[in-house]
Amino acid sequence: MATTGSTSDEVLDTDEGVGEADSEIESRVGWRYTLGQVKGDPTALAGLVVICFMSGLAAFATLDAVVFDYLSEYAVFAQFGMRKYWIAETFWISPVKEPLGARRLLPPAPLDNAYGQGTWDHPLGTDDRGRDILVRLVYGSRIAISVGAIATVVGMVGGTVVGAVAGYYGGWVDDVLMRAVETLYAIPFFILVLSFIAVFGRNLAFVMVGVGIASIPTFSRLIRSEVVSVREEDYIEAAEAAGVRDRNIIARHVIPNSFAPVLVQGTLQIGTAILIVAGLSFLGFGVQPPTPSWGQMLSKSRGVMIENVWFSIWPGLCILVTVVAFNMFGDGLRDALDPRLKN
Amino acid sequence: MTDPILEVRDLQTHFFTADGVVRAVDGVSFEVYEEEIVGIVGESGAGKSVAAASIMRLVEDPGEVVGGEVSFKGEPIVEFEETEAGTRRPTDAMLSNREMRERIRGREIAIIFQDPMESLNPVFTVGGQLREFIEINRDVGESEAREIAVEMLREVGIPEPRERLDDYPHQFSGGMRQRVLIAMALSCEPSLIIADEPTTALDVTVEGQILEQVADLQEKYGTSFIWVTHDLGVVAEICDRVNVMYLGQMAEQAAVDALFHDTRHPYTDALLDSLPRPDRTVEELRPIAGVMPEAINPPSGCRFHTRCPDAREVCRQVNPDARDVSESDERPHRAACLKHEDVFHEDYWSSPPIDNETDSGFAVGRTDAGGSGDE
């Protein structure tokens, strides 16, 4: 009846048997494994490469257009000649000013059209005011990427908090929060963002926050369904039994264990947000000229599509490539995380 | 003997389901004294775990503690009073949820869960979780908590504790994880640890080691334990006193030796007959006939009468509570059986016996004898 009796050292050894099998298990969990999976998936990898490239461009553009603009207000930096578009104007041309003797609507370098032969000064051609398309695309990436990222982070944080709280507490808290969120869901995305702009003005910040808030329902519903199962886990009960505060249980135990699907949705959502903001720019909301953005360029090109179709093609292509890249990466990430999502 | 540190009186925990009220714990009383290990034994579904959770006030929806009293070192964890309307409501003196969280859970009463595989957060390092619990319950800083964590891991027999602190739960084996959970419970220096079948998921060799370790640590720290289990072997191994539960009620409560060698309740008898014992040789083990009835619609009278070999007509009418049936010179020995006629004063011996066909292992048709069916 006594179960003890064979307490020998050998037994202790088998007890800690952390063998080769365990290192295999180890590699199946965590970031290294996930990224390894993505690396083995060519589409996801291509998506990641494009995302990195676009993010690099956006970082460069942000430095030149925003950081330098901000720093130039201080005499220390201004005496060096620091100003907005410092790098672009020093090494090439201004992305916002009409150049002297501008030639409008030139095609890409090797081609010609009614307005003349393309030149290598403007590899992708010029727009309706003679500005270089390439440099405007580079500076437009800043808007696309930052809008996508910020709007998604707003939606992700808001949605995660709402969904996790609703899922963890259940009962009336769940009902109130989720019904409120579903009310948001019932309003078409675009209308919701437009009404935001109508209330707060045509400021880019409000556009980003508006798109973020409009995506809260997607995230909160997603994480809530995960949290509902995670909260039944023993380690949550163990934390409760140890006297951990509810907000720490939610933040440290519940959310990290239900976050994988939100992360996947997040990468997909960045693509959607870029599309939405491009659409808004096309309609004239969002970022205002002369600041370049892809959607706004697309909108401008509408009137001169016959004269120089390339003015439409390039920004459209940029939007397409970026959005598809985020979707490919998101799909790859989902596949990589899937074995754990099923658990 | 001194006052008990934990006193449970007539505890009632019900689950309000769509099918009706499940009386998972229905009037259970017991106490835990300082530095002793008290067992709660019973079949699956007897309400052991719910009773344990009720003490911590951690019963989850749709369950609710609806009556009785739990007091810990004189503080009312559960206490009810009658309103003018005749309903029960918690008294004002009962600890608030906040007080429970800040003063009782972890600090005074810790709990060790059944499944070591599920009780550690997979995304956290073992050291991180230990530290979190220690910081909360012992008011120490991060580095000090880390030292305590290392010390506790060493104490429960984990080699190279400092290195293993940064490992994730999946890098530990089942027995190791259970040690970590024990370290977690002990590290907050509680007065009472509720162990909810902590060794059930482990194989017997590891179980044996852990039981020994717990016994050593219990002696060293002077912690009291409530050991919830369905394994009478484990009970014999480590418990000082035992409470046998059946269908939400206490069947027998006695010191461990008295329970095994001077059994006073037919259910305990049946349990003991159904498992091999080193001190007795039998031809064949005798499992208890049938399965435990649903707590949603318990049998009338004594809850065990549908499966009891000694059941008589009177058992269908009277539901005995656990009363002291000990001889005058013994330690208290409580049993809830009408057989003890001098205590219960019902005409047990003159009542006609009920035939429960206890010889066949599985008495089909008797299993769901939900009270009304066979009356």
Q: Outline the low-pLDDT stretches of chain A.
A: 1-28
The poorly predicted ranges of chain B are 358-375
Query: So what's the overall shape of chain B?
Result: globular
Say which CATH homologous superfamily of the largest domain in chain A is assigned. Answer: MetI-like
| Number of beta strands of chain A | 2
Please indicate the percent range of residues of chain A in DSSP E strands (runs of 2 or more).
Answer: under 5%
The rounded Rg of chain B comes to 22 Å
How are the strands of the biggest sheet of chain B laid out side by side? Answer: 8-9-10-3-11-12-14-13
Count, helices of chain B: 12
Helix-strand sequence of chain B? EEEHEEEEHEHHHHEHEHEEHHHEEH
Strand content of chain B: 15-25%
Oligomer: heterodimer
CATH C-level name of the largest domain in chain A:
Mainly Alpha
Strands side by side in the biggest sheet of chain A: 1-2
Structure description:
The complex is a heterodimer of chains A (343) and B (375). With 343 residues, chain A is mostly helical. Chain A has two domains: 45-100, no CATH class; 133-342, MetI-like (MetI-like fold, Orthogonal Bundle). Chain A is 70% helix and 1% strand. Chain A has 16 helices and two strands. In chain A, helix 4 (42-71) crosses helix 7 and helix 14 runs antiparallel to helix 16. Chain B has a domain at 249-344. Helices cover 29% and strands 22% of the residues of chain B. In chain B, helix 7 links the parallel strand 9 and strand 10 (224-229). In chain B, 48% of the residues are buried. Classes of the chains: A mainly alpha (343), B alpha/beta (375).
